[in-house]
Amino acid sequence: MGGIDSRYKRGKHDPKGLFILHQDRDIVVVDKAPGLLTMGTDREKMRTAYYQLTDYVRKGNPKSRERIFIVHRLDREVSGIVLFARSEQAKIALQSQWDQVEKHYLALVHGVPDEPDGEFSSYLVEDGVHSVHSTADSSRGRLSRTAYKLLRTSHEISLLDIHLLTGRKHQIRVHLADNGLPIVGDRKYGGKRGRERRLALHAKSIAFKHPHTGEPCFFETRTPFMFSRISAQPE
Known about the structure:
Elements: E1 18-23, E2 27-32, H1 49-57, E3 69-70, E4 79-85, H2 88-96, E5 102-110, E6 117-126, E7 132-135, E8 142-154, E9 157-164, H3 171-178, E10 201-209, E11 216-220, H4 225-228
Parallel strand pairs: 4-10
Antiparallel strand pairs: 1-2, 2-4, 3-4, 5-9, 5-10, 6-7, 6-8, 8-9, 10-11
């Protein structure tokens, strides 16, 4: 399996808020819109990627035995690739290789990093109000690592390629804010609202081994317009 051509157009029957990048008997790969939960909460159960995709594979038939299994999730505010399994076995196979799955994000941040590429690491801990922060106490937090590469910068706004080396809650957002590079639109962690009035973080690509065939898979989304407006070269 190769990459997905970013010129593909949205299908007429794609579920609302999702663009189907690929589907087979074992997996479904989607490009999620910002503002859509990956899975339900006590307050919101229907307006989620999981609900929309389940209805899609069941073709609207509530008696269908088709199921969708959540492999990982994106924050509501984050757009981009989400991988789902179509069986319990596929889910287990994908999650068992998760440390080797390569995930890249695009982030627009305030400021310019000191070096054109590098890595941030810290121990992250979640407090009681669903906020995450770094701690010096390794017994309380989980070691988290985020690599970055500067792609472009203009007027103190930088476009970064983020390679997620571990997958903790709010990891990218906290690491960038900790290092003076808050994400545009991330008011929770110090970023100012941008023109688009959304969090400027997008899950751009994912690479993994197919849970059934073992073949290498690579999927990449088209780049949202807000990330392509920075045209200057890295300083």
